């Protein structure tokens, strides 16, 4: 089944930042949905745990240039 994870994302200062995080999330094989809140410094991600791990999602956000911490 699918899993959800909430990730704290820091370093986003504008809507283009949150859009690029969202693009990075949606570019990961195994991520079905990714919505990023600039104001709440959060990303909600729906993913297939058979294809991708929470840690990989965190690393993809960091590769996009932001700090990320898995919350749940
Ligand atoms: Mo504009 Mo957001 O450079 O980094 S995309 S502040």
From TrEMBL:
Domain HMA: 3-69
Subcellular location as annotated: Membrane
Family the entry assigns: Belongs to the cation transport ATPase (P-type) (TC 3.A.3) family. Type IB subfamily.
Protein name: HMA domain-containing protein
Organism lineage: Eukaryota, Viridiplantae, Streptophyta, Embryophyta, Tracheophyta
Shown segment, full-protein numbering: 39 to 110 of 933
């Amino acid at each position: 089944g699918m899993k959800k994870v909430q990730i704290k994302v820091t370093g986003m200062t504008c809507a283009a930042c949150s859009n690029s995080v969202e693009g990075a999330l949606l570019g990961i094989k195994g991520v079905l949905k990714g919505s990023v809140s600039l104001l709440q410094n959060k990303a909600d991600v729906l993913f297939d745990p058979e294809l991708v791990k929470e840690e990989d999602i965190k690393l993809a956000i960091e590769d996009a240039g932001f700090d990320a911490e898995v919350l749940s």
